[in-house]
């Protein structure tokens, strides 16, 4: 489809007139020289797509490319908004040839009766969602689990073939064939000639997303034509007996039930597109991931030493260096993207690789951080109704490949080489990946038992919040008879993660199931140490008891985080800090920060007696008469109603302590401006699910186009995960805030202790682990 010339008048000029060139956008305006030079078939784009469009991401995030005839979108929020609205931004051009081919090449394709049409990826609503729903079941985590042993067995067998050679081209010797074999199993297709299918897949990529030269076009057309015919033959054979496992067979069986939804044309197109989609993306993604990790030896060493880091490392590699750098959409009406007018009929190239390096969404976006908490926000799998259906199969394969290679070849390194890519906009991975190692050092020679150990694969999105790190207990020191201070350092002396006042860490108290949160109460400026203080609760659930009784200096400990749901707003005019008992811990770093910034503040600290109150001397030295100690046995209770009698504009109150104290404070602050009071809870019973007292409700997922029922005995979080929707979660009790989802309609019954009063009243977000619908339905932005 050509961009209509008539659409020029409506649109404002989107470009920088100071940097003129001869090139014209469809608006008739000249485009900037960099937009004019943009060419995604250049090697510079192939080598590093986010770097190639850094200028655009920073200065001209939506621009028209005259060479391509597309509008190019480069920022995270804009691309997510495009994916989210698949009516305004139609996917119908996703499989169109990006480079129109010669008459001769078209004639070759026609001679094979080539008729690639709608699959899922390029189908508009309402046909798309009806079909997606009918065909979804084999992609659910439950169904995918059955494939894990086959993937593992294949990965091992391929490593066996080269492990004693001391060198390999991982792409040629493993990363193409294993995903291709897995893809064929998944589809239910008998194993065909692997080399031929690989060549066909590359031809399909070049035909659809490449810029083949005229002489190349004929060769490509023959390969694509043959691929089309082969797909037809496989389908015909499958139709004779569509029983047994495999997604294509499942599709044939569903055709009998829903002939208008699962059409013949769909099945033939999908057979061909499916073979490509299911393996080329995974093969490229794994090659990209291995290249990236081997180029970052610290990250490689860390995953070799601790395979539990692999699921998030996979996600971070998909973010940093994914295999699908860009995708396409068609604007169906005049619309704005990032403030730029886009006329109806415009074609869009949305560069997800650029979104994934957008500093506005990812801190230190260019850095590879395998513990990054929001790695899985990447857009490599797309987003919304068309999000990659095979994402969890790809994640599983990548985890298994990394696990096998890190365990068996931790001493592997990249050879000197230059990397080449097939020039095209959308499928990207090195054509070869040469690695070498000393076979004499293969760990399994000294320790054959190593081959038996297997780390569990995580099917679905990993939670970056769930990534643990090992630390060493440097010192343990009693602060009172019930509270002890722990100083934690890195085992190799490296700096600890950075944190801000209000942050806490999760400590694994002996087993991963017994995880407890502890606020950081040291100095954020000290990069080497994390300090926590733990109150012994003998009648508790066992976490604090374990810390007090089992832990010794020199022990290793697993922690997660830091995370912060109690952020200190440094713009406050005045701050009142109120701490009760062990609730002093998050307040310590905040009060120090207020002092550093010269903010007017007061610190009120209550306890049963001075002897039970940790850090008193240190606080008194630092804060002098800004510290007010309220010791119960001295008859000096904190009188909140007197302290907070008159609301003051610009004053913030930060409070942490026992539940009763916090409830009393909430009452006293009822007449204060909204959100003046900011609270951290250490405990909550509000989120406990009692099926007898609950009712079932429906959730409509706007972006995915499905409706899920949440039974009385299930949390919203579990219901979403059961429907293959990724939502992060950590504490599961409504304390930590990691499972927040956005709500578009329906009244929420909030059960968490994270949201502020005004956030609850706004009724536009909720914690999926514990909060529910007040009525019978909610609509979520998922
Ligand atoms: N307990 C402490 O003793 N010190 C802390 O600094 C501390 N910080 C916490 C921060 C947050 C965000 C939360 C949710 C809880 C915090 N707690 C803290 C409470 C502990 O996580 C835990 O509930 C307590 O040690 C009792 O655990 P137990 O019942 O397993 O013994």
Automatic annotation (TrEMBL):
Name the source organism: Noviherbaspirillum album
Q: What name appears for this protein in its UniProt entry?
A: Cytochrome P450/oxidoreductase
* SUPFAM superfamilies, A to Z: 2Fe-2S ferredoxin-like, Cytochrome P450, Ferredoxin reductase-like, C-terminal NADP-linked domain, Riboflavin synthase domain-like
| InterPro entries in the record | 2Fe-2S_ferredoxin-like_sf, 2Fe-2S_ferredoxin-type, 2Fe2S_fd_BS, Beta-grasp_dom_sf, Cbr1-like_FAD-bd_dom, Cyt_P450, Cyt_P450_B, Cyt_P450_CS
Q: Where is the 2Fe-2S ferredoxin-type domain?
A: 695-782
Per the database record, which ranges form the FAD-binding FR-type domain? Answer: 466-569
Q: Which domain of life is it from?
A: Bacteria
UniProt record similarity statement: Belongs to the cytochrome P450 family.
The record's listing under PANTHER family reads: P450, PUTATIVE (EUROFUNG)-RELATED (PTHR46696)
Output the Pfam families linked to this UniProt entry. Answer: FAD_binding_6, Fer2, NAD_binding_1, p450
């Amino acid at each position: 489809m050509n961009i209509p010339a008539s659409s020029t008048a409506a649109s404002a000029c989107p470009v920088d007139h100071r940097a003129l060139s001869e090139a014209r956008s469809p608006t008739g305006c000249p485009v900037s020289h960099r937009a004019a030079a943009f060419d995604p078939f250049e090697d510079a784009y192939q080598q590093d797509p986010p770097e190639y469009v850094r200028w655009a991401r920073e200065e001209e995030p939506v621009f028209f490319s005259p060479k391509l005839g597309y509008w190019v979108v480069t920022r995270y929020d804009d691309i997510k908004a495009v994916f989210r609205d698949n009516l305004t931004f139609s996917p119908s051009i996703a499989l169109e040839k990006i480079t129109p081919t010669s008459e001769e090449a078209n004639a070759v394709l026609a001679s094979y009766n080539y008729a690639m049409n709608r699959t899922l990826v390029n189908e508009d609503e309402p046909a798309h969602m009806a079909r997606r729903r009918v065909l979804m079941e084999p992609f659910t985590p439950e169904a995918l689990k059955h494939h894990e042993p086959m993937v593992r067995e294949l990965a091992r067998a391929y490593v066996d073939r080269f492990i004693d050679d001391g060198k390999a081209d991982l792409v040629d010797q493993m990363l193409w064939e294993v995903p291709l074999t897995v893809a064929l199993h998944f589809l239910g297709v008998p194993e065909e000639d692997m080399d031929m299918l690989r060549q066909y897949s590359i031809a399909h990529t070049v035909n659809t997303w490449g810029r083949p030269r005229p002489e190349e076009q004929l060769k490509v057309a023959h390969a694509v034509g043959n691929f089309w015919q082969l797909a037809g033959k496989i389908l015909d054979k499958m139709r004779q007996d569509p029983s047994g496992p495999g997604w294509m067979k499942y599709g044939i069986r569903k055709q009998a039930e829903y002939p208008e939804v699962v059409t013949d044309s769909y099945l033939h197109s999908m057979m061909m597109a499916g073979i490509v989609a299911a393996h080329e993306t995974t093969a490229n993604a794994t090659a990209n991931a291995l290249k990236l990790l081997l180029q970052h030896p610290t990250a490689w060493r860390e995953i070799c030493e601790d395979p539990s880091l692999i699921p998030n490392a996979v996600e971070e590699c998909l973010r940093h260096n994914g295999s699908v750098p860009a995708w396409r959409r068609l604007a169906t009406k005049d619309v704005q993207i990032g403030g730029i007018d886009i006329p109806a009929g415009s074609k869009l190239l949305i560069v997800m690789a650029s979104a994934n390096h957008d500093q506005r969404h990812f801190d230190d976006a260019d850095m590879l951080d395998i513990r990054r908490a929001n790695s899985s926000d990447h857009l490599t799998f797309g987003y919304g109704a068309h999000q990659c259906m095979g994402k969890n199969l790809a994640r599983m394969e990548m985890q298994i490949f990394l696990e096998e290679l890190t365990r068996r070849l931790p001493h592997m390194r990249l050879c000197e080489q230059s990397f080449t890519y097939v020039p095209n906009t959308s499928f990207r991975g090195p054509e070869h990946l040469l690695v070498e190692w000393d076979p004499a050092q293969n760990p399994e020679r000294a320790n054959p038992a190593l081959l038996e150990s297997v780390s569990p694969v995580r099917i679905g999105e990993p939670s970056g919040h769930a990534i643990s790190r090992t630390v060493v207990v440097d010192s343990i020191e009693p602060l009172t008879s019930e509270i002890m201070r722990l100083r934690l350092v890195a085992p190799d002396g490296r700096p600890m993660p950075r944190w801000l006042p209000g942050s806490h860490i999760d400590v694994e108290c002996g087993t991963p199931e017994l995880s407890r949160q502890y606020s950081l109460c040291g100095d954020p400026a000290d990069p080497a140490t994390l300090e926590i203080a733990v109150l012994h609760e003998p009648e508790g659930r066992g976490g604090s008891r374990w810390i007090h009784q089992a832990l010794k200096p020199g022990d290793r400990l697993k922690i997660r985080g830091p995370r912060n749901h109690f952020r200190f707003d440094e713009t406050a005019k005045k701050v009142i800090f109120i701490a009760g008992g062990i609730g002093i811990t998050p307040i310590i770093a905040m009060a120090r920060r207020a002092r550093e910034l010269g903010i007017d503040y007061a610190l009120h600290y209550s306890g049963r007696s001075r002897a039970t109150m940790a850090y008193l001397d240190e606080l008194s030295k630092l804060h002098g008469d800004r510290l007010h100690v309220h010791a119960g046995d001295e008859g000096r209770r904190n009188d909140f109603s007197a302290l907070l009698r008159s609301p003051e504009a610009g004053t913030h109150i930060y409070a942490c302590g026992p539940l009763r104290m916090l409830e009393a404070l909430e009452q006293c602050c009822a007449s204060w401006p909204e959100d003046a009071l900011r609270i951290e809870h250490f405990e909550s019973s509000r989120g406990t699910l009692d099926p007898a007292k609950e009712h079932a409700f429906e959730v409509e997922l706007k972006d995915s186009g499905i409706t899920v029922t949440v039974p009385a005995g299930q949390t919203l979080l579990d219901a979403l995960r059961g429907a293959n929707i990724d939502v992060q979660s950590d504490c599961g009790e409504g304390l930590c805030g990691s499972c927040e989802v956005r709500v578009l309609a329906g009244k929420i019954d909030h059960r968490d202790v994270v949201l502020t009063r005004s956030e609850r009243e706004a009724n536009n977000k909720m914690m999926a682990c514990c909060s529910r619908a007040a009525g019978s339905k909610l609509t979520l932005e998922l």
